[in-house]
Every structure is written in C-alpha cells, then in structure tokens.
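User: I'm writing a short methods note and want a consistent example. For Lipoprotein, I'll paste the sequence; you return only the structure tokens, no commentary, since I'll be parsing the reply automatically.
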Amino acid sequence: MSPRRVLGVLACAAALSCGRGDTVQRPYDNNDLQLVTSYTAKDFCSCLFVMQMSEEYCRRWTAASPAVATVTVDYKERSVQTAAALLWGEKARFVSERDGCVLE
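Assistant:
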C-alpha cells in the first residue's frame, strides 16, 4: 500500500473516531423554546445563587423578548424552574460555589 493511501486511511479512521466518547449528550432539536427555557433556568440560577443578586435583578438580567418563559424559584432547594408553552421546561440547581448551577 502506498504511503499516501496509508495516510488517507489513518485520516479517515481518526475522523470517524472523533466525538465518540462516553459523555451523554441531551438531544437538541433546534427548538427555540427548549433553548430559552434551558438558558433562562441556568442563568437565573447562577445569578441568584452564585452571583448572589436579588431576584428582581435576575429577572431583568435574564429577560427575553418576547417573554415566553415563566420562572419559579425554590430557595429551599436552591433551584430555578422554567416553563414555556406547557410543553417545554427546565430545572437548574445550585451545586456548589466551585461548580455553580447545573441543568437537571
């Protein structure tokens, strides 16, 4: 086999093996409401529990136009839940000072 062909086969094998780790990725179907609820939950949680800003400030900071997501804060669980159009929703919770907030 020629050196050029060997390099081509190796390049193909390397390209096919990329991105096939053991990480679990959630599907994203290019849905704007899914994106808005996820973004708002994570950023609102970070604003409240990491940056320690007021709820009023965080509502303004994460406001989207048009306002399609509702936000519910649970101070006891240190979490934020968002919902949009009754079908999409997301929950973010505070983990630690180092790790901040994560989506559940």
